[in-house]
Write a structure and sequence with these properties.
The chain is an alpha/beta fold and 362 residues long. The protein contains 15 helices and 10 strands. An 8-stranded parallel beta sheet has the order 1-2-3-4-5-6-9-10, with helices on both faces. A two-stranded antiparallel sheet has the order 7-8. The longest helix has 21 residues. 51% of the residues are buried.
Length: 362
């Protein structure tokens, strides 16, 4: 059965990899820039949205990251962070997302004088406002917050301590983001040791712009999920219909380390040739714990429904595939098991029932 875009929007969905400063509404960027005196390429919201997409279509992760000067640049006050977080939740709920983990790097939001804790507090408040706003419109959504440490800075210990200080106040995980090549996660070993001792969940951007060595490094520091992870195919040899997995690929699959795959973003940064030839389909068919995500909704002009629909129309995915990756995402969310079970049993499975049935391993 062909799944329509409208049906996908109506499905309850789980989003694990979505950057707060990559999902700002274009009109909000324009508004905040005017308030703060920040110069933009254009002040027309639609033209600005096109500029972000076109600039991100570079084939380079580093050039893609450069576009954030205009989003993070206007998110330097508590009010701005609160507004962006609230609007992000409203937009995700309108797209049928029922559980979302938003991530941001507090260290990138201090030029206006905010402390790291004040930045976290503002985002937490905005997420709560967004949940309440969505509920008022009849849309239920749950959220968690992941704090990112930037690879190119030396503040990972600080951010790890910040995450632990807020673990009972909505922060559910720790991430390492930024330029991947030349900045191994293992350079932040002290931070990861602190998190490991505290039994705190970790995800690491790896296997996007760098290959198997970066993924191996992320696994070594204790990543429970891998941000993107598509270069795992470097450790998989194909011979006709047969695939032989290397030790790293076997380890990731055997241990159910989830892949936070972001198809459109991967095409933009050169990690994949197209959606039709994206390695995520092979990884799903081989039994890896695949989840589908947006990465940066502004730069990719996308939504979770759009990502899933592209996989249906261009890569031949089925309703059962959509159900499988949704269940996998729910099973690998950085919330407690009782919360996952409640989300799956009360929200996800009933919502997916009309589009197919069958059991899928998470």
């Amino acid at each position: 059965m062909t799944v329509t875009f409208e049906q996908i929007v109506a499905l309850p969905k789980v989003l694990l990899h979505d950057h707060l400063d990559g999902g700002v509404r274009p009109a909000t960027v324009v508004d905040l820039a005017a308030q703060q005196g920040h110069d933009l390429p254009t002040t027309d919201p639609e033209a600005l949205a096109a500029w972000f997409r076109d600039s991100a279509d570079s084939g380079s992760l580093e050039a893609y990251i450069d576009t954030f000067v205009h989003t993070a640049g206007v998110m330097q006050t508590a009010d701005a962070l609160r507004r962006v977080a609230r609007e992000a939740v409203e937009d995700l709920a309108a797209d049928g997302v029922v559980y979302a983990e938003e991530r941001f790097a507090p260290e990138l939001h201090q030029s206006g004088g905010l402390s790291l804790q004040q930045a976290v507090d503002a985002v937490r408040e905005g997420l709560a406002e967004g949940v309440a706003s969505a509920a008022a419109q009849g849309r239920a959504i749950r959220t968690g917050l992941i704090l990112c440490a930037m690879r190119q800075s030396d503040r990972a210990d600080e951010v790890a301590s910040l995450a632990l200080a807020n673990r009972d106040r909505g922060v559910v995980g720790f991430d390492v983001a930024g330029p991947e090549s030349g900045f191994p996660a293992s350079a932040m070993n002290a931070a990861f040791a602190q998190l490991r001792t505290a039994r705190f969940p970790v995800t690491v951007h790896a296997g996007e712009a760098a290959g198997a060595d970066s993924l191996d490094d992320a696994v070594d520091v204790g990543a429970l999920r891998l941000g993107h992870g598509i270069r795992l195919t470097d450790d998989i040899t194909a011979a006709g219909e047969t695939h032989r997995l290397g030790r790293l690929a076997h380890w990731v699959r055997d241990r159910r380390i989830a892949l936070e795959v972001c198809p459109t973003s991967n095409v933009q940064t050169g990690g994949a040739v197209s959606i039709a030839k994206h390695p995520v389909t092979t990884l799903l068919r081989l039994g890896f714990a695949v989840t589908i995500n947006t990465d940066n909704r502004l730069q990719s002009r996308t939504s979770l429904s759009r990502e899933l629909h592209l996989l249906v129309t261009e890569a031949g995915w089925t309703a059962d595939d959509l159900r499988a990756v949704t269940l996998t995402a729910a099973h690998h969310a950085f919330c407690h098991e009782d919360e996952r079970t409640d989300l799956i049993d009360r929200v996800i499975l009933p919502g997916h029932a009309p589009l197919g049935s069958g059991r899928h391993r998470a």
